[in-house]
What we know:
Chain A is mainly β. Chain A contains no helices and eleven strands. In chain A, 0% of the residues lie in helices and 52% in strands. In chain A, strands 2, 4, 5, 6, 9, 10 and 11 form a seven-stranded mixed sheet that branches. A four-stranded antiparallel sheet of chain A has the order 1-3-8-7, with no helix packed on it. In chain A, a hairpin with a 6-residue loop joins strand 5 and strand 6 (56-57). By secondary structure, chain B is mainly beta. Chain B is built from no helices and twelve strands. In chain B, strands 2, 5, 6, 10, 11 and 12 form a six-stranded mixed sheet that branches. In chain B, strands 3-9-8-7 form a four-stranded antiparallel sheet, with no helix packed on it. Chain B is globular. The A-B interface holds A 31, 33, 40-45, 48, 50, 56, 58, 90, 94, 97-98, 100-101, 103-111 and B 9, 32, 34, 36, 42-46, 49-53, 90, 94, 100-103, 105-108.
Amino acid sequence: NAGVTQTPKFQVLKTGQSMTLQCAQDMNHNSMYWYRQDPGMGLRLIYYSASEGTTDKGEVPNGYNVSRLNKREFSLRLESAAPSQTSVYFCASRGLAGGLTGTDTQYFGPGTRLTVL
Amino acid sequence: AQSVTQLDSHVSVSEGTPVLLRCNYSSSYSPSLFWYVQHPNKGLQLLLKYTSAATLVKGINGFEAEFKKSETSFHLTKPSAHMSDAAEYFCVVSGGGGSQGNLIFGKGTKLSVKP
Protein backbone atom coordinates (compact mmCIF):
# COMPACT_ATOMS: atom_id res chain seq x y z
CA ASN A 1 0.00 0.00 0.00
CA ALA A 2 1.98 2.99 -1.30
CA GLY A 3 -0.56 5.71 -0.38
CA VAL A 4 -0.08 8.81 -2.55
CA THR A 5 2.81 8.79 -5.02
CA GLN A 6 4.12 11.67 -7.12
CA THR A 7 6.51 11.83 -10.05
CA PRO A 8 8.96 13.33 -10.65
CA LYS A 9 10.56 14.25 -7.33
CA PHE A 10 12.60 17.09 -8.84
CA GLN A 11 12.37 19.04 -12.09
CA VAL A 12 14.10 22.03 -13.62
CA LEU A 13 12.40 23.82 -16.51
CA LYS A 14 13.17 26.82 -18.65
CA THR A 15 10.62 29.59 -18.98
CA GLY A 16 8.01 28.62 -21.56
CA GLN A 17 8.52 24.88 -21.33
CA SER A 18 5.64 22.59 -20.47
CA MET A 19 5.42 19.61 -18.20
CA THR A 20 2.99 17.34 -16.40
CA LEU A 21 3.21 16.34 -12.76
CA GLN A 22 1.78 12.93 -12.05
CA CYS A 23 -0.07 11.79 -8.95
CA ALA A 24 -1.60 8.44 -8.09
CA GLN A 25 -3.30 7.02 -5.00
CA ASP A 26 -4.12 3.43 -4.16
CA MET A 27 -6.56 4.09 -1.29
CA ASN A 28 -9.70 4.14 -3.44
CA HIS A 29 -10.37 7.78 -2.48
CA ASN A 30 -12.85 9.84 -4.44
CA SER A 31 -11.33 13.27 -3.89
CA MET A 32 -7.89 14.43 -4.96
CA TYR A 33 -6.10 17.77 -4.66
CA TRP A 34 -3.10 19.71 -5.94
CA TYR A 35 -1.37 22.27 -3.73
CA ARG A 36 1.68 24.46 -4.04
CA GLN A 37 3.90 25.37 -1.12
CA ASP A 38 5.92 28.55 -1.04
CA PRO A 39 8.05 29.82 1.87
CA GLY A 40 5.97 31.61 4.50
CA MET A 41 2.72 30.92 2.62
CA GLY A 42 1.64 27.52 3.86
CA LEU A 43 -0.04 25.35 1.22
CA ARG A 44 -2.43 26.85 -1.29
CA LEU A 45 -4.96 24.87 -3.28
CA ILE A 46 -4.52 24.93 -7.05
CA TYR A 47 -7.21 22.52 -8.25
CA TYR A 48 -9.21 19.69 -6.83
CA SER A 49 -11.32 16.82 -8.06
CA ALA A 50 -14.24 15.71 -5.94
CA SER A 51 -14.75 12.58 -7.99
CA GLU A 52 -13.69 10.92 -11.22
CA GLY A 53 -14.64 13.11 -14.15
CA THR A 54 -14.93 16.38 -12.22
CA THR A 55 -12.40 19.12 -11.51
CA ASP A 56 -12.68 22.55 -9.90
CA LYS A 57 -10.46 25.55 -9.36
CA GLY A 58 -8.93 26.28 -6.02
CA GLU A 59 -7.31 29.43 -4.70
CA VAL A 60 -4.47 29.77 -7.26
CA PRO A 61 -5.43 28.03 -10.56
CA ASN A 62 -3.93 30.46 -13.09
CA GLY A 63 -1.27 28.91 -15.29
CA TYR A 64 -2.29 25.34 -14.52
CA ASN A 65 -4.57 22.66 -15.92
CA VAL A 66 -5.55 19.32 -14.44
CA SER A 67 -6.86 15.98 -15.61
CA ARG A 68 -8.58 13.36 -13.49
CA LEU A 69 -7.64 10.41 -15.67
CA ASN A 70 -9.41 7.82 -13.56
CA LYS A 71 -10.14 7.30 -9.90
CA ARG A 72 -6.48 6.67 -9.08
CA GLU A 73 -4.72 9.38 -11.06
CA PHE A 74 -4.82 13.18 -11.02
CA SER A 75 -2.27 15.11 -13.10
CA LEU A 76 -1.24 18.76 -13.05
CA ARG A 77 -0.01 20.43 -16.23
CA LEU A 78 1.99 23.59 -16.70
CA GLU A 79 1.51 24.64 -20.33
CA SER A 80 4.06 27.46 -20.35
CA ALA A 81 6.13 27.53 -17.21
CA ALA A 82 7.03 30.83 -15.56
CA PRO A 83 9.55 31.58 -12.79
CA SER A 84 6.61 32.41 -10.49
CA GLN A 85 5.68 28.73 -10.67
CA THR A 86 8.88 27.71 -8.92
CA SER A 87 7.52 25.89 -5.90
CA VAL A 88 7.01 22.56 -4.21
CA TYR A 89 3.88 20.81 -5.43
CA PHE A 90 1.92 18.39 -3.29
CA CYS A 91 -0.82 16.04 -4.32
CA ALA A 92 -3.30 14.76 -1.75
CA SER A 93 -6.26 12.43 -1.62
CA ARG A 94 -9.10 12.45 0.83
CA GLY A 95 -10.75 9.62 2.58
CA LEU A 96 -12.56 8.81 5.75
CA ALA A 97 -10.32 8.11 8.72
CA GLY A 98 -11.45 7.00 12.14
CA GLY A 99 -15.02 7.19 10.84
CA LEU A 100 -16.81 7.90 14.17
CA THR A 101 -18.06 11.29 13.12
CA GLY A 102 -17.26 11.15 9.43
CA THR A 103 -14.38 13.57 9.80
CA ASP A 104 -12.20 12.93 6.82
CA THR A 105 -8.52 13.36 6.32
CA GLN A 106 -6.27 14.31 3.46
CA TYR A 107 -3.21 12.19 2.82
CA PHE A 108 -0.27 13.83 1.11
CA GLY A 109 2.32 12.65 -1.36
CA PRO A 110 6.04 13.36 -0.94
CA GLY A 111 6.03 16.40 -3.22
CA THR A 112 7.65 17.56 -6.46
CA ARG A 113 10.25 20.28 -6.23
CA LEU A 114 10.00 22.41 -9.40
CA THR A 115 12.39 25.15 -10.45
CA VAL A 116 11.64 27.37 -13.44
CA LEU A 117 14.62 29.33 -14.75
CA ALA B 1 -15.44 31.83 5.28
CA GLN B 2 -12.83 29.82 7.11
CA SER B 3 -9.37 31.01 8.01
CA VAL B 4 -6.57 30.04 10.32
CA THR B 5 -3.82 32.11 11.91
CA GLN B 6 -0.66 30.67 13.38
CA LEU B 7 0.54 33.24 15.83
CA ASP B 8 4.27 32.45 15.68
CA SER B 9 6.29 31.89 12.55
CA HIS B 10 9.19 30.46 14.55
CA VAL B 11 9.42 28.86 18.00
CA SER B 12 12.64 27.75 19.63
CA VAL B 13 12.77 25.48 22.70
CA SER B 14 15.39 23.44 24.50
CA GLU B 15 15.23 19.67 24.46
CA GLY B 16 13.14 18.40 27.37
CA THR B 17 11.12 21.62 27.78
CA PRO B 18 7.43 22.06 26.84
CA VAL B 19 6.28 22.99 23.36
CA LEU B 20 3.40 25.37 22.64
CA LEU B 21 2.42 26.21 19.06
CA ARG B 22 -0.49 28.62 18.85
CA CYS B 23 -3.34 28.59 16.35
CA ASN B 24 -6.54 30.61 16.10
CA TYR B 25 -9.26 29.84 13.62
CA SER B 26 -12.29 31.49 12.13
CA SER B 27 -15.18 29.42 10.85
CA SER B 28 -18.82 29.95 10.00
CA TYR B 29 -19.46 26.27 10.61
CA SER B 30 -18.58 23.77 13.25
CA PRO B 31 -15.00 23.30 12.10
CA SER B 32 -12.81 20.31 11.49
CA LEU B 33 -9.30 21.17 12.63
CA PHE B 34 -6.01 19.45 12.02
CA TRP B 35 -2.32 19.75 12.79
CA TYR B 36 0.13 18.50 10.17
CA VAL B 37 3.90 18.24 10.54
CA GLN B 38 6.49 18.56 7.79
CA HIS B 39 10.06 17.49 8.39
CA PRO B 40 12.73 19.06 6.16
CA ASN B 41 12.34 18.06 2.51
CA LYS B 42 9.51 15.68 3.36
CA GLY B 43 5.77 15.52 2.76
CA LEU B 44 3.09 16.33 5.29
CA GLN B 45 2.09 13.94 8.03
CA LEU B 46 -1.11 14.19 10.04
CA LEU B 47 -0.37 14.74 13.74
CA LEU B 48 -3.91 14.92 15.03
CA LYS B 49 -7.41 16.03 14.13
CA TYR B 50 -10.34 17.50 16.01
CA THR B 51 -13.69 15.80 15.83
CA SER B 52 -16.59 17.01 17.89
CA ALA B 53 -16.26 13.96 20.13
CA ALA B 54 -13.66 15.41 22.50
CA THR B 55 -12.12 18.85 22.97
CA LEU B 56 -8.72 17.45 24.02
CA VAL B 57 -7.23 15.59 21.12
CA LYS B 58 -4.24 13.30 21.42
CA GLY B 59 -2.00 12.74 18.45
CA ILE B 60 1.13 10.93 17.52
CA ASN B 61 4.55 11.39 19.13
CA GLY B 62 3.14 12.77 22.39
CA PHE B 63 1.47 15.84 20.89
CA GLU B 64 -1.98 16.99 21.86
CA ALA B 65 -4.24 19.93 21.11
CA GLU B 66 -7.22 21.47 22.86
CA PHE B 67 -10.19 22.88 21.01
CA LYS B 68 -11.50 25.99 22.77
CA LYS B 69 -14.58 27.33 21.06
CA SER B 70 -14.85 30.40 23.30
CA GLU B 71 -11.31 31.43 22.34
CA THR B 72 -11.47 30.07 18.75
CA SER B 73 -8.15 28.40 19.42
CA PHE B 74 -6.57 25.02 18.72
CA HIS B 75 -3.10 25.21 20.26
CA LEU B 76 -0.65 22.32 19.91
CA THR B 77 1.34 21.20 22.94
CA LYS B 78 3.88 18.61 23.99
CA PRO B 79 5.20 18.25 27.55
CA SER B 80 8.81 17.56 26.59
CA ALA B 81 10.48 18.42 23.29
CA HIS B 82 12.74 15.97 21.51
CA MET B 83 15.33 16.79 18.90
CA SER B 84 13.32 14.84 16.34
CA ASP B 85 10.41 17.29 16.82
CA ALA B 86 12.28 19.96 14.89
CA ALA B 87 10.05 20.55 11.86
CA GLU B 88 7.42 22.89 10.45
CA TYR B 89 3.90 22.57 11.84
CA PHE B 90 0.72 23.59 10.07
CA CYS B 91 -2.63 24.30 11.64
CA VAL B 92 -5.41 23.54 9.19
CA VAL B 93 -9.16 24.06 9.04
CA SER B 94 -11.45 22.17 6.75
CA GLY B 95 -13.51 24.38 4.47
CA GLY B 96 -16.80 22.75 5.28
CA GLY B 97 -20.08 24.08 3.94
CA GLY B 98 -19.96 22.20 0.68
CA SER B 99 -16.36 23.06 -0.17
CA GLN B 100 -15.61 19.40 -0.88
CA GLY B 101 -13.44 19.12 2.21
CA ASN B 102 -10.92 21.67 0.99
CA LEU B 103 -8.27 22.47 3.55
CA ILE B 104 -7.17 25.97 4.51
CA PHE B 105 -3.64 26.07 5.82
CA GLY B 106 -1.99 28.42 8.22
CA LYS B 107 1.37 29.79 7.18
CA GLY B 108 3.26 27.40 9.40
CA THR B 109 5.36 27.53 12.55
CA LYS B 110 8.92 26.37 12.37
CA LEU B 111 9.97 24.60 15.56
CA SER B 112 13.63 24.51 16.48
CA VAL B 113 14.87 22.30 19.31
CA LYS B 114 18.18 23.12 20.96
CA PRO B 115 20.25 20.43 22.66
